[in-house]
Amino acid sequence: EMCIRDRLLAYIPGAVYLIAINVYGVLILKFQKQAREEGDEESIAIGDGKLFLTGFLGGALGIYASMFIFKYRLKSLFLMVMMPVLIALNVYAVVLLFTTNFGFML
Predict the structure, then answer these.
(1) H or E stretch including 89?
(2) What distance in Å separates the CA atoms of residue 39 and residue 93, rounded to the nearest whole number?
């Protein structure tokens, strides 16, 4: 049985990672919108693949929320369908990891 200190040591890096990857997803979308408004073709090169990968790695909620906050990419059917699917997968993975106390790592 894990003591409380060991559980916290397992939870804190996981929570920090989730916060960081979601902030990263928000920033990607924000910078992409700014680049498109300024007409900077080189910066617009952040495609759906990078957004999808960030969402898959845990940032789907941040990307999906920022799409509505910035009113950007709302007509992208790929993102509007895949981000909620990835949110469900992210939630499942987080619940699984936190309920097993990151047992695979210990």
Answers:
(1) helix 77-99
(2) 38
B/e letters for 81-94, b = 16+ CB within 10 Å, e = fewer, are ebbeebbeebeeee
Residue-wise pLDDT tens digits, 28-81: 999 888 888 888 766 566 678 899 999 999 999 999 999 999 999 899 899 999
The pTM (predicted TM-score) of the whole model is: 0.84
Q: How many residues does the chain have?
A: 106
Round to whole Å and give the CA distance between 50 and 76: 14
**Nearest C-alpha neighbor of 53 from the set 25, 91, 76, 30:** 25
